[in-house]
Every structure is written in structure tokens, then in C-alpha cells.
Amino acid sequence: MRSIVAFYFCYLLCLCLGFACVVLVSVWNTQWRGGFAWDGSPHQFNWHPVLMVTGLVVLYGNGAVLYRVPLTWGQNKLPWKLLHAGVMLLALVLSILGLCAVFDFHNASNTHNLYSLHSWIGICTTALFTFQWVLGLAGFLLPCSPVSFRKLLKPAHVWMGGSILVLSIVSCISGINEKLFFALKVTNNTEPYANLPPEAVVANSLGVLIVVFGLVVLKILSNQKWQRPDASEDMSYSPLLQDDN
Amino acid sequence: MRSIVAFYFCYLLCLCLGFACVVLVSVWNTQWRGGFAWDGSPHQFNWHPVLMVTGLVVLYGNGAVLYRVPLTWGQNKLPWKLLHAGVMLLALVLSILGLCAVFDFHNASNTHNLYSLHSWIGICTTALFTFQWVLGLAGFLLPCSPVSFRKLLKPAHVWMGGSILVLSIVSCISGINEKLFFALKVTNNTEPYANLPPEAVVANSLGVLIVVFGLVVLKILSNQKWQRPDASEDMSYSPLLQDDN
């Protein structure tokens, strides 16, 4: 019972932190960065942090812990499996749109792509996420997937899931840090980053919230007591058309 | 047997990646950043990445996985406990020296401290690491520590250990990214970062190695099969003077 209460406390924290991250990244880019457009201007760039934080961190993290909600354990796993795949697909689509936003902006302003460490880690994160989603679809949802493959895939899928979240957090923090150094300087007619103007405090706080959100999700994922019980474990290997309960 | 082979493969990878990180961060700062000094100059700053990567990532990661080495399982735990505490203390001292290097450099050049997101996450990481080390000493090595406290502390210590490593990786990647944007620009008489000069490739590769090292360490820590077996688990709660075997 204590374990269930502790879970719901962490889960509530995860939901609230995720919501706060989406609000804060949107406020930052609306209030201080001039809002949004899809025209190759810096306003198109503003979609990049909003879509990456919403997709690659918040939706991804919430999709990852879905199976851990005890309320779902007594129920047929199939709808939850589909919801997990659906939330992750939405997270992936938003992440890819977020990448399109920054590539379009760079191309329109003749800026090089993929040279910074942030971009190297970020592109690897999205590539691994795409690979993980396709492999998850093939292994856990397609009826032709052999049981032996699924049994092999399950621990790798869980491990890769946590690793992608770590990579997402690394990408977001290095990106927010980079953006603030680019944007907040006297030559841009703004107070420099070093003076910690309100925008810097808001964006730094967003970074801290992202890290705390990620650690709460990793805490939920790593707790053995919060895993879907063994009794239904075999079902988790059943692909879509074999889920008969 | 297969699990032991897999462990030693991961452990060897962890050792090699850690060694490569220390070599690469040293080469970067010697070859391209002008080497080291302790005089408030940019050469003093160069200690910062070297000491943080060596202490907060490589030594810390290696100290964290010490108990997982199967070779140690049949042996008295006390020497390994002392080695774990010793390696972590060395990691902590190097990290604090790394912070002193950057604070001294900033103060000498009248640059603000602790304004960037990188610095916020970095200072929290070192503070948490200090707290974790002191609490670990009090809980697991002092003879007056009550058993109930140690039992409560163990899972929190393990969880906090992994979280600090995630924070270390986040801090290092955002720091390397920030440093390259500061250093590689035409006004500094260097080729800009966007052209990916050799220094950028080396430092970006260092970042990638740090991330891979961190994921390998987290993989070792998260594998239940690689934890010191239950038989010796009670010993792990025995503080220093009660370790009688």
C-alpha cells in the first residue's frame, strides 16, 4: 500500500513537472523570443525548443511510465500497449517537426547544420528514438514477430527507453544553454546572460525542471516494485493479434 | 556464465571509455587551449574541463561500479567498501578543485559566476555529490550508525548515485558545448565552430564518449544480475567496525 501511495506521488510529480515544462518553454518563446511562425525566420526556430521539450521529454517520459500505473495492471494490456505506442508516435512526430524547424531556419539563414555537440547528441537521440519505435512496433505489435525475438527485445527495449530519456535531457539542457548565450548579449539589444535578466531566470528554471522531470521518470522506471506484475508479464510478449484477453 | 562474460565486456568498455575520455580532454586542453597554469589566466580555466571529466565522470563512474565486479563477491567486503569511499573521495576532491579553477579564473577576469544553466546544474551536481559522500560515510562507515538508518539509506544511496552521474553527464556536455562556442570564433583568430575545425571534432567526440561511458555505467548499475549477491547483502549494511569477516 505504501509503495502504491509512493508511486502515485511520483506519478503526480511527473505529470505536474511535465505540464510546468510545456508551459515554461511556451512562455519563454512567446514572451521573450517573439512567438512562432513557419517561414524560415527566427520565429520558426522558436518551434524547436517547444516541440523538442514537449515531444522528446514530456510526452516521451509520460509514455514511458504508462505501464507502471497500478490502475492498469488488472486490465487487458492491449489498449495500454496501443496507448503507449500512440503517445510515443506523437512524441516522435513532434520531435521530427522540431528538427525540421531548426533545419529550415538554418537553411534559410545560410547557417551550417549539425556542427555543435548539442546537435550531434540531439540528432543521435532522435535517430535512436525512431529506431526504438520501429523495433517496438515490429517486436511487440506485429503478429508475425516470433516469441524468442520478443523475449530478447523486451529488456533491450526497456534499457534503450531509459537511455533515450537521458540523451533527451542532455540534448535539451545543452540546447537551452547554447540558445541563451546566442540570444542574450548586448549586440542583440538585450541584457547579457551574465546579468541574469528575467528571461535567463525563466529559461534556466525550465532547464532545472526538465532535469528533475527526467530523474523522476527514471526513478519510476527503475523501481522493481512498480513494474507490471509477473502474472501479466507473459502477455507483454504477445503481439497485437495474439492479445486475446 | 554468459552474464559474467557480458559483465566483463561492459566493465572493460567502461575502463577503456573512461581512459579515452581522460586522454581526449587532456589532449584538447593541451594541444588547442594552451595547456595549464594556476594564475587566474585562461590556462587556469583549462583545469576545469580536465578535472570535472576526470573526477565527476570517469573516477565517479568507476567508483560506482566497483561492487558489481564478480571477482570481489567472494571476498571480505570491507576493503572494497574503503576503496569505493576512497575513489569517490578522490573524485570529489578533483571536482572541487575543478570548480575552484573556474571560480578563480572568473574572479580574476571580473566575469560573473553561476549565471548559466550549465553552472546551475554543475554546482547542484557537486553539492549533491558532497552530500551523498558525507551521508555515505555516516551511514555505511561510522560504527555508531543504526541498522535501521542504513537499511533506509541503501536504496536511496544507490538511486542518488545514478542520478548524480546523469547530472554529471548533463553538466559536462552543456559545458563542452558552451566552451566551444566561446572559443571557436573568428574574433579569437580561430576557425569558427560551424566549420568543424579539428579541435571541434576532438571536443565533440569527447562529448560523445562521455555520454557512451555514462550509459555503460548506468547499464552496469541497473542490471539486477550484476548486483553483489544477497548472501553478502547484510554485510553491506555493516558499518566499518562491525565488518568482521
Automatic annotation (TrEMBL), chains A, B:
Coiled coil: none
Cellular component, GO, one term: late endosome membrane
Cofactor requirement: heme b
TM spans (from-to): 7-28, 48-70, 82-105, 117-144, 156-176, 196-218
Catalytic reactions of this protein: Fe(3+)(out) + L-ascorbate(in) = monodehydro-L-ascorbate radical(in) + Fe(2+)(out) + H(+)
GO molecular function terms attached to this record: metal ion binding; transmembrane ascorbate ferrireductase activity
Pfam families given in the database record: Cytochrom_B561
Location in or out of the cell: Late endosome membrane; Lysosome membrane
The keyword Nucleotide-binding is annotated on this UniProt entry: no
Gene3D superfamilies: 1.20.120.1770
Source organism, top-level taxon: Eukaryota
GTP-binding among keywords: no
Major subcellular site: membrane
UniProt KW keywords: Electron transport, Endosome, Glycoprotein, Heme, Iron, Lysosome, Membrane, Metal-binding, Oxidoreductase, Translocase, Transmembrane, Transmembrane helix, Transport
Cytochrome b561 domain residues: 13-222
SMART domains for this protein: B561
Membrane topology: Multi-pass membrane protein
Function: Transmembrane reductase that uses ascorbate as an electron donor in the cytoplasm and transfers electrons across membranes to reduce iron cations Fe(3+) into Fe(2+) in the lumen of the late endosome and lysosome. Reduced iron can then be extruded from the late endosome and lysosome to the cytoplasm by divalent metal-specific transporters. It is therefore most probably involved in endosomal and lysosomal cellular iron homeostasis.
Protein name as catalogued: Lysosomal membrane ascorbate-dependent ferrireductase CYB561A3
Organism of provenance: Umbra pygmaea (Eastern mudminnow)
